[in-house]
Design a protein that fits this description.
This protein has a five-stranded antiparallel sheet, covered by helices on one side. The chain contains three helices and five strands; from the N terminus they run H-E-E-E-H-H-E-E. The chain has helices at residues 8-14, 53-59, 61-77; strands at residues 21-24, 28-32, 40-46, 84-87, 103-107. With 116 residues, it is an alpha+beta fold. The protein has one domain: 2-Layer Sandwich (HIT family, subunit A), CATH 3.30.428.10. Helix content is 27%, strand content 22%. Bound molecules: guanosine-5'-monophosphate (5GP) and zinc ion. Guanosine-5'-monophosphate (5GP) binds at residues 8, 19, 31-35, 43, 89, 95-98.
């Protein structure tokens, strides 16, 4: 998909907006969330623009695996000891506010279920 000019995460991938990057590869970038909801809150995004996880899965299935693998590696680097939550918010009603696929990695505290 062609990146929209106004996509915030495309701008972070391009380096036009600064971010605290914790991991990168040819296909994904991981950076700290600006408004963290846990001691570790990292967003893992594909370099390519897709609106959500399902659209990325349809277009580039291997990159979805890449997001999960990158999240696991960052969790390890952060010392989370295999205790963390991965979230893809999809659609405004589910809490999605940036329409460029991103996997939330949250850890460093105990979480409740169900989510709010
Ligand atoms: P969503 O609500 O779409 O699932 O997640 C978007 C996330 O992006 C939010 O957790 C929000 O705090 C984060 N965010 C919004 N703007 C920026 C930004 O400019 N830089 C970074 N690092 N995170 C951002
Ligand atoms: Zn984008």
């Amino acid at each position: 998909m062609t990146a929209p000019d106004d996509c915030l995460f495309c701008k972070i991938v391009a380096g036009d907006i600064p971010a605290d990057v914790v991991h990168e590869s040819d296909t994904v970038l991981a950076f700290r969330d600006l408004n963290p909801q846990a001691p570790t809150h990292v967003l893992v995004v594909p370099r390519s623009h897709h609106a959500n996880a399902a659209e990325l899965a349809a277009a580039e299935p291997a990159t979805v695996a890449g997001l999960v693998a990158a999240a696991a590696r960052v969790a390890d680097d952060e010392g989370l000891d295999g205790q963390y939550r991965l979230v893809f918010n999809t659609g405004a009603d589910a809490g999605q506010s940036v329409f460029h696929t991103h996997l939330h990695l949250l850890g460093g505290r105990r979480f409740t279920w169900p989510p709010g």
